[in-house]
């Protein structure tokens, strides 16, 4: 019995397609399963070369590869790790897994080839990949050693990689730099005790984009058992939009809070500052009526003049408050005006002009007129001067308020200093907080908060220094545009 | 007979003027003294000669709340404290007269013994009459 005959029987009863080839590639034996797989009639393949079974694309290299095998014949699966295709008689390409075994026959070494049709498995895989590519979530499949075995299109897009770039690369490529060392340890421990769970339990998770940027993500891990070993499927949800939306919401809420403060300030101002002059007017008018009856015309004339002044100032004040309320956090119109005059007007408005026991000292180091938001500047100065007035120190013989100005490097700086009671050290950090009223002299606790907000908005700064018992000094500086210089 | 000395404490000249005219018109009271701060008022108050036995001496104080230096509350607290050791009138009627209608201010005013009323500017003639009756609670 020839060497070939020895194998024939075994071939015929084997359900696995099998083939025996010589060193030169001649097909010595092929069972019916093999013929069927490659769509040949039984026996048709005998004496042909194996190269007819190799697709055109690689056929020219095949004899070379075959020679290499015979030089170092070992038992191995062919095309390990690679996709291997065969071609049928009709030219159809079929996916295969091949087993190769060297067989000694005297001086010659023949090759025993077992072929397994993996077309179905392949098409399953393809269908699965298609489905995963259709998914909106990013998916990354990782093997036991942390290598990426599959990424879907959503993942490639999310992480900024081109098609196939991530295959066989370590998954740490997608992990923020600070976790590069620890991540393989996590992978290892997940592989030994795997269950479906969220990654990073309760922590904010980030993935690494190709450009190094950190992407906020949510990740679910699922263990997958496959013929190639244990795999882990990570489903990754991009939270960038959600995080951005949450931040936008927080911004909105801060904005609303600030608007609320302005509204409270407006209500307080309306009830207090606007009611007081009306009360004065009502009181004076009652007196005028009485004086008219007694023909005390001089007194009537004097009081009516006062009433006119008060109502004029109040009307202006209403206008100013409405302007602020309407403008909210938006810009007010830029006007050209004399800062010194504005300060004097505010002074008269706050002190009633004639009756003040407090001295105003003005030291103007800039040149008028200036161009900026008049309404905002008024609001700032009114608050600072009114504070300086309110916190006078009765223990001192005179209460003085110094307002000085300076124009330097495009910035207008104004300092309002008083020799009042000053700010206790312990209260200094609270001075600018909303609703913080340091003592009974404090207003609604909004003034300085509003002032700071306006100054911030205009790109300026507000600072203060104070020694308790000696006075306080508030300084602010605002950028004046180039065009506004005189 | 009793003699009512009126103290007008307010840093605003205008408010003092309106109140002064209203009080003077009523003719109910005696001398009207003005002070533009809590400290000045306290000085004024304790430099009065309260020792004279007759007639009965009453101090009617119109107190503003928001003032530079001591505010109205602090001024009256200081007044109460000093009265424990210093000589004062037979009766003190302190009235808050202010443009603040703040509920928390009204509440705080109740905590002071000497305070008998809380009025918002401007006072009218009825207010003054009402205050007058507060000065003589037993109708004497």
From TrEMBL, chain A:
Keyword terms: ATP-binding, Kinase, Membrane, Nucleotide-binding, Phosphoprotein, Transferase, Transmembrane, Transmembrane helix, Two-component regulatory system
Subcellular location(s) of the protein: Membrane
Annotated Histidine kinase domain residues: 269-482
SUPFAM superfamilies: ATPase domain of HSP90 chaperone/DNA topoisomerase II/histidine kinase, Homodimeric domain of signal transducing histidine kinase, PYP-like sensor domain (PAS domain)
Record-level Gene Ontology MF annotations: ATP binding; phosphorelay response regulator activity; phosphorelay sensor kinase activity; protein kinase activator activity
Topology of the protein relative to the lipid bilayer: Multi-pass membrane protein
A Pfam family the protein falls into: HisKA
Enzyme Commission code(s) on record: 2.7.13.3
Gene3D superfamilies cross-referenced by the UniProt entry: 1.10.287.130, Histidine kinase-like ATPase, C-terminal domain (3.30.565.10), PAS domain (3.30.450.20)
Predominant cellular place of this UniProt entry's protein: membrane
NCBIfam families per the UniProt record, alphabetical: sensory_box
Family annotation (PANTHER family): SENSOR HISTIDINE KINASE GLRK, TWO-COMPONENT HISTIDINE KINASE
Protein name: histidine kinase
Organism from which the protein derives: Puniceibacterium sediminis
UniProtKB/TrEMBL annotation, chain B:
Phosphoprotein among keywords: yes
In-chain residues carrying the UniProt-annotated modification 4-aspartylphosphate: 64
Keywords, in A-Z order: Phosphoprotein
SMART domains: REC
Biological-process GO terms, alphabetical: phosphorelay signal transduction system
Response regulatory domain ranges (all copies): 5-136
InterPro entries: CheY-like_superfamily, Sig_transdc_resp-reg_receiver, TCS_response_regulator
Protein name, UniProt field: Response regulator receiver domain-containing protein
